[in-house]
Fold each of these.
Amino acid sequence: MNRRTIVCAIAVLVAAGAMAHSAHAAVRGKNFVITNNSGAARSDLHLEVTWTGGTATLRVIRNAPGCPDPVVSNPGTPFDINWGSACVGAGESITVQVIGDFVQSSEIASGYWTPGTPGQFPLSTGDVTAVPVPGLPTWGIGALTLLLLAAGAAFLRRREPATA
């Protein structure tokens, strides 16, 4: 194999990796830790979520201890999370993730716990905490791709020695 073939193969692999990363980067999300500060165990949580971009869905990524997997209404807002029984104890927290194609920014505008008397227990300011989603920033992969392409271009500029 000559040098040009090797460089072309490397360029194809880098381009394929960059395209795969771009497809993954199109799906974005945000995590929120929500604490039940209503004073009693609750079975349902209803959330009004705002976001920019495409269609968003919500999933519970960390459940309260001892709770079964909840049923979540998707897509769209309001999102209703139902555990079927009052298992989210007072002071316990869950973590939800709002995710979707090209969803840029998302926030929990309001929400409330049910059931109970008088029926709804609204979320207070300190009940919701946004948590960054871990991962490599998109600019890091882009910079790496550009550096590899520049190195490949410099490598191609060097001419192979003529053989007699």
Amino acid sequence: EVTYEVTKVDGVEKSRKEVSRKTKKVAKNKITYTGSKAVVTTKEVTKTEEVAFQTREVENALLAEGVRRVKTAGQKGVRTIVETVTYTDGKETGREVKSNTITTPAVDEVVEVGTKKVVAPVVTTKEETKTEEVAFQTKEVTNPDLPEGTRRVKTAGQKGVRTIVETVTYTDGVETGRVEKSNTITTPAVDKIVEVGTKKVVAPVVTTKEETKTEEVAFQVKEVQNADLPEGSRQVKAVGKKGVRTIVYTVTYTDGVETGRVEKSNTITTPAVDEIVEVGTKKVASTTTNGDKKDPATTGNQAESTKKEETASQDKKALPSTGTAVSSLLSVIGLAFASLAAFVLRKKD
């Protein structure tokens, strides 16, 4: 026999602790002799019975009025009864209750009863519209003008639009239902068309050949000073000559059509010849008339002298460079004579 200390809160068992335990002795038959004939014996019989649980109700202000909810499930207990039974000549002749204890207490069932006043809910509905993309299909068509294995988009695909309208129900502002009202494709998708080539491809004929072209190379003009030429005069000493640049290309042809051009060489095959120009640096003395009025004859002589100088200068340009010194000397002498003639004429006047 075991004795427990049970702790309950609001009828609910929270803990159980063993207090004592007794070992029952094995029942032995008691033999009583009456006279020389009757045999009287006794033995103990143990039986158990269920103990029904109680149901307790507690109020809950958070539950709607009239609503019942089991907070703690009830559990049946166990009652243990020990009886002493007397037998005379093997027949039961008496039964006496030796003990009657609740060995397992029942657990009360706790039921919450709602007391909250229920207010009629506010139910509203509204329509919601949403759209979804509709995928386009891809279709292939053969094209005998395209090389076999080639794929080309003929028509780009475009996604469509599906429009869905739903009726949404709200109870006290909280969604409690949603029903699809309509579901239609408002913009149909456009199929993507892909052309697939079926033309048999023939290996192309590739050839190469070299092409040569020439370009002019401009000559440079270099100036050199000549102390025997009058200052400001210019004279070509050596005529410039253009050179020649030769360019060789390797040209590739595919099926007779040019498909590539690579420069193989680029060289100056005929160098240009620089043009040499002499620039005079000799100072030329100038004559003055002390403010006298120029005589027409003198002016004419001077003009003629100047013309002769220009002609002489032009002749010098045509002469070889070896005659440069002689030409310069003649020019100086001519200028001297012209000055002298002008002076004599002024004296005569």
Amino acid sequence: MVFTSMQRVPGIFNIIYYNFFVFQKSNECSIVTHMQESFASFWLSRMALVALVVYVYSAIRLWRLAPGILANRLAAVLCLDLAVWALQAALSYAADDPAVTVLLSKAMSWSWPFFAAIAFHLALELSIDWKKINRALQTGLVSAVYATALLFYYLLAGPLLQGAIRRAGYWSVDIAPGLGYSAFSAYYLILNLTSIFLVTRAWHASKAHRERARLALIVVTHAIALVGGFTTDTILEVLSIDFPKVGVLWASVWAVGLNIAMERYGFLAPFSPRDTGLLMDGFVERSMDGIVVGDARGRVIYWNEPLEEMTGIPAEEVIGESLGRLQETLVPDGKPRTSILDAVYHPMRKITDAATKLIEFEIQHRNGQTRWLQTSAFTIPSAEGDILAFIMRDVTRERLATEETLEKLRRQSHAQKMEALGSLAGGIAHDFNNILGGIVGAVSLMEAKSEDASPGLPFDISKELAVISKSVNRAASSVRGLMSFTVNAPQKHEPFRLEESVRRVAELASRTMDRSITIVTSDLPQDALVVGDASRVEQLLLNLVINAGHAMTIMKSSDEARGGAITLSLSRATRDAESNAGQSCSTPESVPYWALTVTDQGVGMDQKTLARAFDPFFTTKDIEQGSGLGLSLVHLVARQHDGFVEAESCPGAGSTFTVYLPAAGCSLDDGQRVS
């Protein structure tokens, strides 16, 4: 009952509850809300001040870097515009009176539309060559952009400004929604997107690494600032999401990007024109290579000291002279020879940036010495036209070293021939001793018969004459074989029977090589025709046979049995481009070959040795036993006949060398078949 009466009539407890607890809860909520708003406005204001410092610092650096360059001035003005925007934001975030926010907007909101206009103007300077565009069009486009920015400032500070609204803990300007604000948003977005597009296009078109790097950094940081700012200042507001407008803070990402581009990649002229000239002079003069640069009118503007040493021509004689008039003729040894500029300038006249080419040419130094120079030429686009530049290097020592190496190869080739000839001579001397022994024996028998025969009676010497005839024929055959390998005649290009060459080499080798070696011939078709020099092919085959003989004799250890069989065979083969990969063969695809195979029962080779078997001067023999040119000459002769060589070997199992030579029917220059 008591409880019921208290419900009907408000008592002291009800009064206390409603007047203390409810009031206290409401007061606490207002205090918490006020604290949250104060916290947000405090930190937003401080962050805007930090952004202000970043913008002012960036503007000063960019301006002091090269105030004479429009792109630098635009970048500096852009940062100052952002600094004004950041100052307005910092004061608005901290303002307690909405009237202050409105006043700041009327005084400083010009920074919003002019930010987009300056960004677009900067992008034009970074991406477009204005010298190729009509100046009236340039002036009209830029003026229209800035006039539009001025119009939007009038709208934002006047008709569209409705006052201030409490937003996310601070006073923010209240812009009337509708066509005007939508037009400004579209203007802001289109100019920024166009700016990013123009710089991106210049980034992809650039061929210089540093320029590509700095343009990429500008594009990425600008895109981040645009996406972040447009999201927080426009999209979230349209979606009625209570979030601070911090677009000016997002823009600091772009300012930092400009600073990094400037520091790391020399963004917007890291040197003044005077310093750039001094820097170029320092590099040119201290270069180890010769450098000559001609301006767009063809006059020499750089001729450095190394080039003076290479040519003997001082810079004073050529600076300012026309490249076309410097066609000075030097006459070494009574033979006319053009000067350095004539040798380089005319062939490279139409050079482009995409086609740099190395050229070697011979000149005569002022002191009479002959020099070889290597040069690369390239063009540098400039406002007045393309600048032609050459980098030259004295390669006289390398050229002489190459010629010396070639001469050494020729001498070694001759020595290898003498080595093969020595082996042949030893075998032929032994063969001739046997031949002469037979002849001497036959003559002795004839003398004995003549002494024993009765005077006036005939005696039979037919057997002795047959022995002498056979011996003489053997001697003649040996001499012919020897001459076929020692003749120093030009290489021929005529069809010949490969079977006959194989038989000649086999016959010669069987008489001259170690008695423990047997020469075996098998499968020698008589229609094996190739085009080339028979003596060169026989020399190739002889080198393979001698190599095989060494593998079965001098290459074996003292406890191994020496000798064995060398098998020479000849067969048809068809090879295509895939199977000929790496063989440097110049014949058509899928053509018939004759495969000449030499197989021995020698010591064999492992894969590491086999991979180097055809290298010049590589040998596993003692120095006195081989020069290392035998197999390299085999490879050379095969290539001279549009063929190639394959080798198979295994330690202890001998080796097989196969020489592929194109069949004569598809190798004649006139295309006729050999019958």
